[in-house]
Write a structure and sequence with these properties.
320 residues, alpha/beta, Aminopeptidase, two-stranded antiparallel ribbon, 14% strand, binds zinc ion
Length: 320
């Protein structure tokens, strides 16, 4: 009950636009936002002289926004810059940094890992992950969130964008599920008819991007993983608890178990709930109201289904 009440409080905060209320919940986040508003970043590359060469719209942005804003649908430069993403220190096959961001209290009772664009041609997945990160900075103090908005940057930045990574591996078939050595290649050969978009790789965790997720599961020990995809417009779930029935307009519709998938590995093998979001369109981001509703619905489900680990939450006060 205590956990549910706490999450209900978070929901009210999410729904209310009042900065004062938010300041009580997440003073650091609000201070950040207030600072950013009061001290906008100097736009060094904006021409100060009319004759100066014209800069591209994203030229003044720091990494990774310089690359991401022109590439991702529905992502503004201001939104991206405000997030203050950090380098993870891990790079993709083509040496692109895997950027990440932590939001929330270190001692929060629940830890959530949010992954965007494990498939590189699902551009809207990165946008939603980034928008959720913005929502978490304003309203997400009840959990520790780790966002990796673009897990497959080589696929996203390819022209055209590619589902697989630069080695041609479907990262979401590269996790060490039981029997991978037999099941993954057999599934690929027989069920996908050797679809190059779904090649699981030569061995599990052969890729730096999938190893990074695996390392995060070990080091960050999330209580929940949310992996954002597109374009099937459904919600999927793997794990030991009751699934969310809907997030926003997306309804639960289990899509099955695939050898090497993150859902199979995390949810069924390691016992960490994995919510898989399939946005309805890979090229177009949902309206912000819809993104926000998905976030609110996830919060509600978390409050009802994820065990809180703090002493006060685990042992609610009892009447004498
Ligand atoms: Zn996908």
């Amino acid at each position: 009950m205590a956990a549910a009440a706490r999450w209900c409080a978070a929901l009210l905060l999410c729904a209310g636009p009042g900065l004062l209320t938010l300041a009580q919940a997440a003073p650091q986040a609000v201070a950040h936002a207030a600072h950013a508003a009061a001290h906008p970043k100097p736009q060094a590359s904006q021409p100060s002289h009319p004759a100066a060469p014209k800069a591209s719209p994203a030229a003044h942005l720091a990494e990774p926004c310089k690359q991401w804003v022109p590439r991702l649908p529905g992502l503004s430069a201001a939104q991206c810059s405000a997030l203050k993403l950090q380098p993870s220190g891990t790079r993709s096959v083509q040496a692109r940094e895997l950027w990440m961001g932590d939001v929330g209290a270190r001692n929060a009772p629940v830890k959530v890992l949010v992954l965007g664009a494990i498939h590189g041609d699902e551009l809207s997945a990165s946008t939603v992950a980034l928008q959720w990160m913005g929502l978490a900075q304003d309203n997400g103090a009840d959990a520790l969130w780790r966002f990796v908005p673009m897990l497959n940057p080589d696929g996203v930045m390819a022209q055209p964008a590619r589902r697989v990574n630069a080695h041609g591996v479907d990262l979401n078939r590269n996790f060490p599920t039981p029997g991978w050595a037999q099941e993954a290649p057999r599934y690929w050969a027989q069920r996908t008819r050797k679809d190059p978009r779904r090649w699981p790789g030569n061995k599990p965790l052969s890729e730096p991007e999938s190893r990074f997720v695996h390392d995060q599961m070990t080091a960050f020990t999330p209580d929940l993983i949310v992996s954002i995809h597109a374009p099937y417009g459904v919600l999927d779930f793997d794990g030991p608890t009751d699934p969310p029935r809907r997030l926003g307009r997306l309804m639960l519709d289990p899509v099955g178990v695939f050898p090497g998938s993150l859902g199979y590995y995390g949810g069924m093998h390691k016992g960490v709930p994995v919510v898989t979001i399939e946005l309805p369109n890979a090229q177009r981001a949902p309206l912000l109201a819809e993104t926000r509703q998905m976030w609110l619905d996830l919060h509600r489900w978390m409050g009802e289904h994820l065990p809180a680990k703090t002493a006060s939450a685990a042992q609610p006060a009892r009447a004498p």
